Structures are given as C-alpha cells and as structure tokens.
Amino acid sequence: MKRPRAECASTESGARDARMLTVAIIVWCGAWLGSRLASDPTLARMHAAVLPAVMGTLSALLICPPIWRSMLPARSRDGAAYRRQVGKFSFLCFRGIPTVMTLCAAFAASTGCSLSWSTLRLSDATFILAAQESGASDVTIHVRSPVTVSPLRSSKCTADVLVTAVASGKAHTLTLPSRFPATIYGDDPVCALRRDALYSIQAELGVSSFDGGVELRHSTDAGAETVLVAEASIWWRSMAYVQQRFLSVTSRLGEQGRVLVPGLTMGVLGQETIIDASGGQVGVDAAYARGVEKAFTRSGIMHLMVVSGGHFLLLSALLRWVANRIRPHPVVTAVTSVVAVCILVSAVYPSDAVWRAAVMSVLGVVSGLLGRRAQAISQLSWTVILMLFAQPRFADSYGFAFSCAAVLGIALAARPLAGQLEDMLGKAMAGLIATTLSAQAFTLPIQLLIESEIPVFSVPANLLVAPVIDLATMFGLIALGSAWLLPELAYACAWLSSVGTSLMYDCARWLGGTEFSTVGWLAGVRGVVLMVVVECLLLALVVSVHRLYAKACACAGEEQSDGSFAYRRSIRSAVAFWVRESREMFDV
After folding, report:
1. Residue 100 to residues 20, 35, 307, 358, 502: CA-CA distances in angstroms?
2. pTM, 2 dp
3. Residue range 292-316, pLDDT digits in tens
4. Which of 81, 141, 196, 415 stands the most exposed, by the fewest C-beta atoms within 10 Å?
5. Which residues does 74 contact at the CB level (< 8 Å), separation at least 6?
6. If you write DSSP's letter for every residue of 244-275 in order, what string do you get?
7. Does an H or E element contain 22, and which?
8. Does residue 501 contact residue 256 with C-beta atoms inside 8 Å?
9. Are strands 174-186 and 214-218 parallel, antiparallel or unpaired?
10. Of 208, 232, 256, at which residue does a domain stop?
C-alpha cells in the first residue's frame, strides 16, 4: 500500500533535516576541536605537517564511498531479496560505511579549516607583539564597528578594529603586515573613529584576560596623533549618518525610551551609544540605566535588546505582503529581499546573532527562488556549516551558539508542543507558550555557561511582552529608516516604540525586581550537564503523564466526529525516526 504523497514528502523533508543537522553538529565539533588543538604550541609548530595530512585524509574519505558502492550488486527494488543476495552483515557494513565516512570527511574538513585559521592567527605579528607586551607601537587599523561607550573605567570609548599593519623594533622602523581583529580602547581620539575608515595610531598592545583576544590601548603621550589614512566608503558613511540621526531623535525621548528604543531597534542600549564626535554620550542616568539592564536580565527578557531573527522575520513578512499585492517577478522579489537584508545588517550594530540571522534569511530567499518551501532546520544547518567554514571563530561564540540553539528549539519542539497545549489553552496562547518553552529549554544550558542563575519568571515575562514586541520593533525600524529625512515622523514612531518598551520595562521591573526572581545554579560544565539531565527528566515526566491521559481518554471512548481516535506521534518515535534516517544518510 502506497503512502500519500504529502506523507512521503514530509518523511523525506524530515530525513533531509536530520541529515543536515547531523552534519552541522559534526562540523561545529570539528571547528571547536581545531581551535583547541591550535592553542597547543607543539602542535602549532607542526602545522605544516598536520594540515597536509588532514587534507589528504579528507580527499581519501571523499573518494572511498563511490568505490564501496561499486563493490555491491545492483540495487534491487525488493529490499529483502537484496539483503539475502549480499548477505546481512555485508549489507549493514556497506550501508553504514558511506555515512560514517561522510561524517568523518565533514569533521576532518572543519577541523583542518579551524586549525589552519587558528594557527595563522597565533602566528600573526599583532598577536605575537601583544603576547610579548612590547609597549607602544604604531599600528594601522580598519574600524569594523560603530564606536560605543567603553565598559572600562580607564577609557571612554571602544570599537572593534582589524589591525592591517604594525610597527616593530625600538624605533618602530620595521612595519609588519597583519590581519588580526582587535578591540581598541581610548578617550576622545577613539570616540572620533568612523566605521570602515583606515587610521594610523599609536597604541599599546596586550592580550585580553577575558577572551584571549588582542586589546589596543590608545596612547596619550605627547605627539601621539590619530592620522586618517583612508576615508570610509560612501555606503558606511551613509549608514553612520542614519544611525546618528536616529540616536539624535531618541535622545528627545524620556529616560526609558533613550535606553530601550535603541536597544530594541539596533541592538545597543542607549547609554552605550555615542552621538557626536567629541565623545558625548546620551544623557541617561548611570544608576537608572544599570537598574533597567538588571531588571531585564533577572526577568529573562534581555534577549529582546539584541537584534536577531525577529527583525529579519518582520522584514520578510513586510516584503511578502508587498509582493502579494504587486506580483513582481520572483527574481525581482529575491533581489529586493537580499538588498533589504544587507541594508538592515548595515544599519544595526554588528553581532554574531545578526550575522546568523542574515545568512539564514538569504538562504531562505534562495530556497524560495528555487521553488523549495521553507525548512528552518535545514536552513539553520547550512547556515552553521557555511559560517563555521568561513569564520571558525563562531564555534567559540556564546552569542552565535545562543542564537542557533533558540532557532533549533523553536523549529524542533514548538509545533508539537503547541499541538499538545492547543486543546487546553487555545491556538494563540499555546503557540506563545510553546515557542517560549522551546527556546528556553535549548538555550538555558548555554546561558548557564555565562551566568549561573536561572530566571524563574522568564516564561510569564515573555508571554506578557509578546503582544507589543513586534509593534514596538516595527515602529523603531520605521524611525531608524526615516530619521535622516523626516525627523518629526521618526520622533513620532520612536515615541510609539517607547510606549511598547515602557510596558516591557514595567513587566521586567515587576517580575525581576524581587529576591525570588532568580535561582542559583551550579557554575561551569557541571551545571550544564545537570540542567540537561533535569530537562530530560522533566520531558520524560510530561510524556508519561500525557500517555496516561491519552490512555484514560481512549478507555473512556473519547473519539473524533468520524468515530476514529486522534493520533499524535510520540516523541520517542520521532527520535527513533531521526536516528534511523541519520544512519541511512546515503542509501547504497
């Protein structure tokens, strides 16, 4: 008996998602391992021999599967007869070898790429001079982010830069090329830096005790000047002007709006922004700003102040609404969507979560252009693979891991959980609770690596602010896009956005302002393992209760209108299906 076409398509889609998710996890593990291996000085010196061996192994693994397939008899439609023909043991061995070898190839490729990338970083002149603490040096930097207020008391401003050249020697006569990312700290000269511009400055190089990166401390010695080598491109000058005009508009709001509207719209809180070249910052009381940030953190809704997938989903929804009314050519729609994503990425403050959401959005546009339906897990897996091969540093990024875990949790668990809760809570409320619980369950172990506290009221806080998030974000984006041309319209939209953020702040202060708002937890890896065990036990308890309830309803004769009982696939069968399809990734 043949299965319906829709069921076959759903099964094939689930199999593809399982395969790509498995490969993405393997690639992530390889990238993480490569960065750890490169930190070993002995292995770093052996890099010239290790990398060719890894690439040779990769080539061999990629060549072997076709050879193994050719050793088997021709594939037969009768699976049982085919197994008897080749033998059960040989069938299982040859069936599993291509899958294992493909995963090994992905692991070897990601490990080799990460090892090469990390070794090149450790051998960079900037890192070597920073590790030696050689004092002040003349460096040429390319500014890669807007300037923000420094978290250190010894400096006013900070920015992310790329060191392109560094001078060595006592007289700074030897200039060495470099390509090393760093963070610069300083006072007024640093506050005047412009994104995408090239500067020559004098700074002290050092290794950060926080993340092992390189820090540049701008020198305040007499005669230490900041020289503009190359002006920023017209694109980035335009984006900087748009951001400055938006911050000028939000500075007219009340204290709450000056703090939260830039955070909700651009991903940076108002007290961290710089709105003029002299280093003046938004007039926000420091104690008030710390209280707002603490309330949002303790209530579990601090993620709302980070630009992530929500902004890009709103943008794509708006573009689909327009496209459904004017009916342009699909290529025009795709190009417009990609351009809109690029503009949004440039207009907000850069972060790893922004890059993840942008790449995933572009992949979604390409999938739609090719006639494929949206598949969140597959798009996320390809996003992880591409970004880790392009920049292996994402394997160590908490922001990137947090963003990926939230998307994966929503894609895997939100829909089945909403289906279970829909009968009791209704469709709208079940969807909100399922989305929040799914994201929380997958991100909580990662959150414990950053801070060993669990926000108790995170779920009710997210439910209370959910009705106003999209509207407040949309008005904030409209204000951001119109502030350079129509400041009064931008102010009206920013004020409407501040109305939504005020409701968020009231909720955060109410739920996060008590001593019972957070619960302490074990720190480090032990806390993460314990949390995973607790979540698995809770999941098993919920599944057991649900099965008992389903059996009780079946015994009581609870039937559908046509006389049949409702069927819902259990979590165990879903996991078993995922494991089976992962093992059969390449059918021989």
Report:
1. 14, 23, 38, 32, 53
2. 0.82
3. 888 888 888 888 888 877 888 888 8
4. 81
5. none
6. HHHHHHHTTS-HHHHHHHHHHHHSS-GGGBB-
7. helix 5-38
8. yes
9. parallel
10. 232
